[in-house]
Amino acid sequence: SVPLAFFSGIGTASRRGILFKGGASLEALAEIKAAALDKTGTITRGTFTVTVIEPAANRNADQLLALAACCEQNSTHPIAASIAAAASERGVALKIPHEVEEIAGYGVRAVVDDSTVLCGNRKLMEQNGVSLPELPAAGGATVVYVACGGQFAGRLLIADTVKDDAKQAIAEMKRLGVTAAMLTGDSAESADAIAAQTGIDAVYAHLLPEHKLERLREIRDKYGPVLFVGDGINDAPVLAGADVGAAMGSGADAAIEAADVVFLTGELSAVPQAVALAKQTARVSK
Ligand code: ADP
Ligand code: MG
């Protein structure tokens, strides 16, 4: 049975926008030693902006953007939204794509004007045998590569920003004895830049959705009970596999459903607040 103090703890938490689905998760949260945080939408705002459009030699910027936006028009990924916004801002006309297929953790494949167009990360290009030219470093931006008919057509650099309270929230977690780790499908370059800005201790990049659970188990073996915080559809299995699974209120329905705790404000500082409250409640109940 759940001690009475936990009901009071749940009430206090809910007034701060932290929703616990039961007393057991509050109790479990008091014991966590590590927090594994998804990068996009959890540590960062998850609102991307296209900052650089870099067409290959045989194309111009509008053509490249049109190809990318055409593929992405039905995707709900935050990257897709930024590409659609850039295309509409520049008044680029979009063709109708066929056989659109979104590949989680990679990007999108579609047929446009009888050519296969790929729009996604380096892994997507490698998987499809598209050779990439030497390109300058992207300086922490997320890179979206575009290929048409098997040939590199250019790349878009997309910037996301760290949440305002992220650095302070990570420092608070450490003060509470919780090691902060980042799990992301993005590149190591981009992940390391975000880790440096926020003081995150451990970075696991280039992860496919199914590999996040393996890394979570590694983190648990190394540090002890682990909290996972995510926001995406792909995060549901990881949420279920963590000692405590938490979702950002701004996240996908599947993530919110699979979570034990929901942070309605979407602020990262809700994580240390919840941990502090859980520890306090556990002390009172003893
Ligand atoms: P995260 O782990 O940061 O939440 P995801 O698992 O959603 O990221 O995606 C991992 C990577 O896969 C992205 O950083 C991006 O490179 C690529 N990707 C996924 N979906 C798309 C898409 N619709 N368009 C372009 N790239 C995508
Ligand atoms: Mg995500």
List keywords for this structure.
13 strands, Calcium-transporting ATPase, cytoplasmic domain N, 6-stranded antiparallel sheet, 7-stranded mixed sheet, alpha/beta, binds adenosine-5'-diphosphate, elongated, binds magnesium ion, about 290 residues, Cd(2+)-exporting ATPase, 2 domains, Rossmann fold, 12 helices
Question: Would you write up a description of this structure?
Answer:
The protein is an alpha/beta fold and 286 residues long. It has 2 domains: 4-45 and 163-285, Rossmann fold (3-Layer(aba) Sandwich); 49-159, Calcium-transporting ATPase, cytoplasmic domain N (3-Layer(aba) Sandwich), CATH 3.40.1110.10. It has 12 helices and 13 strands. The protein has helices spanning 4-15, 23-29, 39-43, 61-72, 78-89, 122-127, 166-175, 188-198, 209-223, 236-241, 253-258, 270-285, and strands at 18-20, 34-38, 49-55, 98-103, 107-112, 115-120, 142-148, 151-159, 179-183, 202-204, 226-230, 244-248, 261-263. The strands form 2 sheets. A 7-stranded mixed sheet has the order 1-13-12-11-2-9-10. A 6-stranded antiparallel sheet has the order 3-8-7-6-5-4. Strand 4 (98-103) and strand 5 (107-112) form a beta hairpin. Helix 1 (4-15) crosses helix 2, helix 4 (61-72) packs across helix 5 and helix 7 packs parallel to helix 12 (270-285). It binds adenosine-5'-diphosphate and magnesium ion. Magnesium ion is lined by residues 38, 40-41, 231-232.
Radius of gyration: 21 Å
Give average pLDDT, whole number.
94
Q: Domain count, please report it.
A: 2
Uncertain segments are none
Strand order of the largest sheet: 1-13-12-11-2-9-10
Small-molecule binders: adenosine-5'-diphosphate, magnesium ion
What's the helix count?
A: 12
Helix content: 40-55%
> How many strands in all?
13
Report the CATH topology name of the largest domain: Rossmann fold
Q: What is the molecular shape?
A: elongated
Structural class: alpha/beta
Question: How many angstroms separate the termini?
Answer: 14 Å
What kind of sheet is the major sheet?
Answer: 7 strands, mixed
Order of helices and strands: HEHEHEHHEEEHEEHEHEHEHEHEH
- Estimated share of beta-strand residues: 15-25%
CATH architecture type of the largest domain: 3-Layer(aba) Sandwich
Organism: Butyricicoccus porcorum
Family: Belongs to the cation transport ATPase (P-type) (TC 3.A.3) family. Type IB subfamily.
Protein name: Cd(2+)-exporting ATPase
Subcellular location: Cell membrane; Membrane
